[in-house]
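Here is one chain, start to finish.
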Amino acid sequence: MDNGGPVYKCGHVSLKESWLWSRRWAVLKRSTLSFHKGEKAIQASALVFLKEVHQVSRSELKSYCIGIKAKDRDYYIQCASDDDLYSWMDAIYEKCPLLSDVSPPSNFHHQVHVDFDPVSGMFIGLPDKWAKLLQSSNITQQDYAQNPQAVLDVLEFYTKNTAESQT
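Its structure:
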């Protein structure tokens, strides 16, 4: 266990514990990622051995969520922002021996994050260009509600292909 040694990253996150999300103090060391009830707590409420981690990826479970797949369990942590999420992902990748042959993205900056609010039936954080495209399209609010990810994929595809054809 990593009782001593340097702390590479630490901070507050939300950890999914069975069905409940709990605010935890996360501590990343050379070979472990531990979750504590508070900054001063010594005893970890959850411990991930990084040598057993075989996948780290963004999860759609919640906004700014990371999925960590280890030998016997999957962990989900929610970060405060996209920058926080990618900072944690990069730091975890760097310390996981099973992922060492796969490099994390470098100089990556997430430009757009769009969520769908099922209560209002509207997208949150939609870029102006995409909002105008939606208004002029035949895509209905019912389409948004049935498959918001498909709507976003279409907008992204259209924007990318329009930009490429203009260059």
